[in-house]
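Lab notebook: predicted structure, single chain.

Context: the supervisor wants predicted structures on file for every construct in the current expression panel, including those that have not yet been purified. This is the next one on the list. No modifications to the sequence; it matches the entry in the shared construct table.
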Amino acid sequence: MADITITGADGDFGAYIAKPESGTGPALMVIQEIFGVNQVMRDLCDSFAAQGYIAACPDLFWRIEPGLQLTDKTEAEWNQAFEYMNKFLPEFEKGQADLQATVSHLRGLDDCSGKVGCVGYCLGGSLAYSMACMSDIDASVGYYPVQIDDYLPYAEHIKNPAMFHVAENDGFCPPESQAAIAEAFSKNDKVTLHTYAGVDHAFARPGGGNYDQASADLANGRTADLFKSALS
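Prediction complete. Output recorded below exactly as produced.
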């Protein structure tokens, strides 16, 4: 487990990486929430490494505040996180390029089998959808993606296995958005959509206010099965 440097089109940026005991295997790019590459993201990387993956989480806010690590425990940190997200979104394409640079970095590692998937949460869930639509990623999973309504026509371009977990009571993804997502995804048999009844946004974030263990365990099990099938 270590912090590494990745070279992108606009410069170098940081990432956290964790490797399995074997030292080798397929790779996963873990895409951050709006809180930066914080302890939650690092713990996720460690968890995926324990499952046999080389897991790396790139710092997408490096142009704004390199090394940002916020929590979801205070209102001040929430406000700061939304501020950074709003600064990031106009440079979405640059963030997408950083993700692709991370995939290329992982594929180039001697320890990597060559297969690379991605899994993202919140903002990262939306970016996982973008990667599924517009890159050669081998498999994608997005937890509670938001604000993808205008990009749903791109779902037809998804060529590799993709899975998305949506919270029924997600305040950032209203019922009409969920219906549009379901309709778009139903047209592509490479895409699987799961909706979790009675839970809110970030239901899979351990320690978070909306954490629901039963739904998180179900979603994480489905994610593990997809990656095992697609990346082995």
